[in-house]
From TrEMBL:
Protein name according to UniProt: Sulfotransferase
PANTHER family membership: SULFOTRANSFERASE SULT
One MF term in the entry's GO annotations: sulfotransferase activity
Biological process annotations from GO: sulfation
Amino acid sequence: MPEPFLPGILGAHKRFEPRPSDVFLASFPKSGTTWLMALTFTTLNRTKHPPCDPDHPLRHRNPHDCVKFLEMAFSLSGDKGNVFAELPSRRVIATHMPYSLLPECITAKGSGRGIVYICRDPKDALVSMWLFTKKKMAAIVAGSNDEDKPPAATSFTIEEAFELFCDGRCICGPQWHHVVGYWEESRKRPEKVLFLRYEEMLRDPVGNVRKLAEFMGCTFSDEEEAAGVVEQIVELCSIDVLKNVEVNKNGTQEFVKNESFFRKGVAGDWSNHMTPVMAARLDKIVEDALQGSGFTFLAGPV
């Protein structure tokens, strides 16, 4: 885990007070997190904020401003207590923590707190993380007065990122271990953990939003279905719409520009950055690591 997040993880374990109605969104970085945030927030709050409303929060705010990260919020707040205490129910809270690092108050049997996990093909997750990291590095350089820093973040190559990723030396550790931790728990307790695949969501976003709503206990009514509310949610949360929202074109987060969260939103883009030899090697590493788990990643572009 990034060193600045470690105090936040400890703070979450010590001070976070969950509610039975909380929804937690878990993911390995760059696996469709922003999209899941938008879909969940919009689905859960559709009565208060109809997706067709021109003043909908997502038309004026980045999804990361609507759904906060558990570990990041506690890292930024220091020892100021439970930073989520003032939020009204139902709260939607994100995390990149592996299942094994989640606070016990969230994972305990009978707690009733739902976790929605989204996974993505490792090759696409790697490429997306690499490009995102380069943007972060460039932003840091651009905002620094240190003349000794390089003029641009071009020195971090895909080859370097690939070797680190294959060794599991990346944020949140080996991606495949992160995924399997949540997948195994979803098999044991499907009522507790909803496991989604990014590629399947691209194929059938409407069906997966219905599945998401059912898991959260807010199934769409016949009237909503007839009015096309599900399709409206999918449209509002689409990358084409969100990337053209003014705040997502010019706004920033603590560490990166908002535009960095909206690149292509497709599956299979890894083939534009990795060689077939690299892909085969990573596939083999993942295949070996998943032996006996019963889990496999979906292959191929959508």
